[in-house]
């Protein structure tokens, strides 16, 4: 007999055309990129079929309507993280958001001898932009270590009077471990230090309110929220945004252009040079609605229960060791064995229709500390079900890679 969760789950899975076509596919790579539900695909096509025109430029009706739609999508995505539309910039995703902040927020403030702090568990997107600016300016790039449970350890001890900015993940893409970002951001605010939060992993699984977190900036990616690739959101606190120079210049963000100088739009439009990703914005706004509806129907509880089953299956494999994780609040778990390369195990599982991610997961400093050869990561999505877990268990039994 089906439980309520199983009924809900089968409804979610049926909303993904890829799983109607491949009902036995066990997809465990949602931390990298979620599959896209029908409603998002339909929103993208609907915009292209009926409403497309360039925005913020045309005086004709179709352009004005497209502009109104685009700004309504901005408001919806901003509301998803507790922000207002005048503080939400559309970007290509978390990577571009961090590069934008590194160039427009950090570089104008950072001086030789200053420092920037990150944690050991950062994705390269929240490491490399800060590291590069520090190298170019002559500032110190500091890395906070981790506790045994994977959370950041003694970050505030690295913060001093020369600290310009601290950037850390809300949840690790390798571990799923959740950092106490609200506590840290409020302490940084008291010390006058800028705070940036990478919410690429947490946004799909946790309710986020930037006002409660107290951060100066927060970034997330659409393709990890059941939306399309190439679109994401960057929240920047109003007074911080007002002091930032443009990241890129061109059409759409310019006010007046003269032979000797030019002036630019203020606010979020000043950071969206060129024609924006309109179809991406349509898809992301719809993905946010899809995700909010799923949460209202018990998706968080469902995924935590399913994660326990996943954890039990992996714990039953004696030759694999699990890295620290959040227990399913962010349903990500990684395993490793120094005698078995994770890529070999991923290839073996793929032959049985199980897709998991092997490697260092764009987090090499972290995986180098915790493993000798990387790890194999499993991450759940709304379409995941018990059959996926059973297929994984069978695949692990059949793989002849035990050292």
From TrEMBL:
> What GO molecular-function term can you cite, just one?
pyridoxal phosphate binding
Tell me the Gene Ontology biological-process terms attached to this UniProt entry.
cysteine metabolic process
Q: Which segments does the entry list as coiled coil?
A: none
Enumerate the CDD domains for this protein. SufS_like (cd06453)
Annotated signal sequence range: none
Extract the InterPro entries matched here. Aminotrans_V_dom (IPR000192), Aminotrans_V_PyrdxlP_BS (IPR020578), Cys_dSase_SufS (IPR010970), Cysteine_dSase (IPR016454), PyrdxlP-dep_Trfase (IPR015424), PyrdxlP-dep_Trfase_major (IPR015421), PyrdxlP-dep_Trfase_small (IPR015422)
Q: Which reaction does it catalyse?
A: (sulfur carrier)-H + L-cysteine = (sulfur carrier)-SH + L-alanine
Write down the superkingdom of origin.
Bacteria
Aminotransferase class V domain span: 27-392
User: What cofactor does this one take?
Assistant: pyridoxal 5'-phosphate
Q: Which UniProt keywords apply?
A: Pyridoxal phosphate, Transferase
Any Pfam family the entry gives: Aminotran_5
Under Enzyme Commission nomenclature, its number is 2.8.1.7
Broad class of enzyme this protein falls into? transferase
This chain's function reads: Catalyzes the removal of elemental sulfur and selenium atoms from L-cysteine, L-cystine, L-selenocysteine, and L-selenocystine to produce L-alanine.
What the record says about family reads:
Belongs to the class-V pyridoxal-phosphate-dependent aminotransferase family. Csd subfamily.
Q: What is this protein called?
A: Probable cysteine desulfurase
Record organism: Aliidiomarina soli
